[in-house]
Design goal:
The structure holds two protein chains of two kinds. In chain A, about 70% of the residues lie in helices and about 0% in strands. By secondary structure, chain A is mainly α. Chain A has two domains: about 70 residues, no CATH class; about 200 residues, MetI-like (MetI-like fold, Orthogonal Bundle). Chain B is elongated. The chains are: A mainly alpha, B alpha+beta.
Chain lengths: ~290, ~375
């Protein structure tokens, strides 16, 4: 830096300095903008198609400026078939929310146990938990179908909630283990001396300190549960079927109603988008910084 | 306030480290006792065993003759201050201090009153709304001390509380800790590796090394009557000078051919032992630099460190290096040939097992 400063004495030194500190110039922004546009374009198409009239959807060349209509949303929610999209939406929300809460609560407790307690076979147990994710989910589909069927839980919310919770648990445990391990042990020792029990320390000291980890695992779990298709497809038909199942069934039963299809697609993205934006402000790292030393 | 008693306490960690070995120690009601020793000497393990953060491997800990070593930490009524503060990062200073009271489910107005009272005592009232990361080291540790004091614990345990602070803050805070401790009369155990700090605030000092208690006493006891070479070397700044000794006969000894004048008790102690492998110990304060002469140990000045009121002079002698404290108005130059005279009544002799010939009966253990 010093060398560069001397050599460029006559040029715009301050500009160069800020550029080296954060190397995004106009070109960088341009590249970033193109890439962002590329990623968002499909979503733009989904949203605009959902807002177009049927003729506008099929117009060629594509219509860029049009008068938006909510007709497709209305049709998807209230007109189509016996059961409208809204019941699938509710199923998706219930199943995702419950399985996410269960996975995060149970996973946080397990992760804390792995970090703070000494017990036989600890490392093997942790590895086993991770190993549950080694095989592709489709490999378990038959045994799980049989189990769910024998338990009389086919087409029930509880079956999907249990399966999604189990699938998310290993992820939650492994991520949160790292977060809990970062809490300086002295903080918890201070709490012990201050008169708190282990369980109280978990809820009042440890959990608030790993909030960023809780939030990120909750987001990941919710996205997984929200998007999961295979198990939902096999284990549910109508009563507990989720949005992905409904979306997949669209082309078969209705021919392909593009406007309504895209309207449901937009609605399928929306809740998870809102959830992620709502909680991401808690994704602040370094909360434990400055606690000790 | 309880009287704490350690009886044969031993702490062995799972990896086999024997951190504390067979510790017998009584902490009197209301006293401030310092555990002093180099790192790894077992002082922190001792205090943590008392707090309940470590399980004792052998032995018992009594508080007023009731066993407490099997109780969980929250049942022992100890408050602890940690070297690295260990504040709750997600809570404000006020909430940090309030935590022990909330654990006891005190009514909210009572909590507020007591927290603010402690904050006033520690001069941190304006900081009550801040989180730990917005506080300086000294402020954090005041909050840490406040959290420990707020519930009026039976014992106050401090594990190197000032270790991470700057020198001027250490001096300021240690005086404050001592004032608070005297005012509240809480039995306090204070761990430090800084002898100056221990000397400044302790009623009694426990010197530990290698997990074993070496000596208990006031700072002056430790300086003037060290029971063994470890205490003699560890306590006192600059450290004691050690020189090998030749034993010419039962009654007299010399250093590199220069006979030593011994006090009567020391001469008697010498007659009582047959050990020939003796070491002389003498404080830099008890050596004076004189013109070279045959009745004195000769040496060459190698380094002079002025300290304001005095100077520390390093002298190389045939028996080994020696440190001498001289008044600052008389300062030998490096390279000068000098003689060293010892204050005969203040000499220490250590036998081949490093025990003091004079003070080895732990008679200063009062």
């Amino acid at each position: 830096m010093t060398v560069a400063l001397i050599r460029n004495k006559d040029q715009h030194v301050s500009v160069r300095r800020s550029a080296s500190a954060w190397p995004i110039g106009t070109v960088g922004y341009l590249v970033a903008a193109i890439f962002t546009g590329f990623c968002l374009f499909p979503f733009y198409v989904i949203l605009t198609t959902a807002l177009k009239t049927e003729t506008a959807i099929f117009a060629w060349p594509p219509v860029w400026v049009f008068k938006p209509t909510l007709q497709s949303f209305y049709n998807a929610l209230f007109v189509f078939g016996g059961r409208s999209a809204i019941s699938y939406l509710i199923n998706s929300i219930v199943i995702s929310a419950v399985s996410t809460i269960l996975a995060v609560v149970l996973g946080a407790m397990a992760a804390y146990g792995f970090v703070r307690f000494r017990f036989a076979g600890k490392r093997h147990l942790a590895f086993w938990i991770l190993s549950t994710r080694f095989a592709p989910p489709v490999a378990f589909i038959v045994p799980i179908y049989l189990m769910v069927q024998k338990a009389g839980l086919l087409d029930s919310h509880i079956a999907l909630i249990l399966i999604y919770t189990a699938m998310n648990l290993s992820l939650v445990i492994w991520i949160l283990r790292g977060f809990f391990a970062e809490i300086p042990i002295e903080i918890e020792e201070a709490a012990l001396v201050d008169g708190y029990s282990r369980l109280q320390i978990f809820w009042r000291v440890a959990v608030p300190l790993v909030r960023p980890g809780i939030v990120s695992t909750a987001i990941l779990s919710a996205i997984f549960s929200w998007n999961e298709f295979l198990y939902a497809m096999v284990l549910t038909q109508s009563r507990a079927a989720t949005l992905p199942v409904y979306l997949a069934g669209f082309s078969n039963s209705m021919g392909l109603a593009w406007g309504e299809y895209m309207a449901v697609g937009a609605m399928a993205v929306l809740p998870i988008l809102v959830f992620t934006f709502a909680v991401q402000k808690y994704l602040v790292r370094g909360l434990t910084f400055g606690a000790v030393k | 306030m309880p009287r704490i008693e350690f009886q044969g306490v031993t702490k062995i960690y799972p990896d086999g480290t024997r951190a504390v070995a067979n510790l017998d120690l009584v902490v009197e009601d209301g006293e401030l006792l310092c555990l002093l020793g180099p790192s790894g000497c077992g002082k922190s393990s001792t205090i943590r065993a008392l707090a309940g953060l470590e399980v004792v491997s052998e032995g018992v800990i009594l508080a007023d003759n009731n066993r407490i070593d099997h109780l969980p930490p929250q049942a022992r009524d100890c408050a602890m201050v940690f070297e690295n503060y260990a504040l709750y990062p997600h809570l404000t200073a006020f909430e940090n201090i309030a935590m022990p009271l909330r654990a006891r489910r005190l009514p909210v107005p009572e909590i507020k009153r007591r927290v603010m009272e402690i904050a006033r005592m520690l001069h941190i009232e304006p900081l009550m709304g801040r989180r730990p990361r917005q506080l300086s080291g000294g402020e954090k540790q005041r909050v840490g001390i406040g959290r420990a004091l707020v519930r009026e614990p039976a014992m106050f345990l401090m594990d190197e509380p000032l270790g991470h602070l700057e020198a001027y803050l250490r001096i300021e805070l240690r005086a404050e800790i001592r004032r608070l401790q005297e005012r509240l009369g809480i039995t306090t155990i204070y761990v430090t590796h800084d002898q100056e700090e221990a000397a400044a605030i302790a009623d009694r000092i426990v010197v530990m090394s290698g997990g074993r208690l070496q000596q208990v006493g006031s700072f002056l006891d430790l300086l003037d009557r060290p029971v063994n070479r470890f205490v003699a070397e560890f306590v006192g700044e600059p450290p004691m000078v050690f020189l090998p000794v030749e034993r010419t006969d039962t009654n007299s000894i010399s250093v590199k051919g220069v006979p030593l004048q011994l006090s009567e008790p020391l001469a008697a102690a010498l007659r009582a032992t047959k050990d020939t492998n003796l070491t002389l110990g003498v404080r830099p304060n008890d050596i004076s630099v004189v013109p070279p002469a045959n009745e004195h140990l000769k040496g060459v000045v190698t380094l002079v460190q002025p300290q304001g009121s005095h100077a520390i002079v390093a002298v190389s002698t045939p028996g080994g290096p020696a440190t001498v404290i001289v008044p600052s108005d008389w300062r030998p130059a490096a390279g000068a040939n000098v003689g060293l005279a010892f204050a005969g009544e203040r000499l220490h002799l250590f036998d081949s097992t490093a025990r003091s010939l004079l003070h080895n009966r732990e008679d200063s253990n009062g």
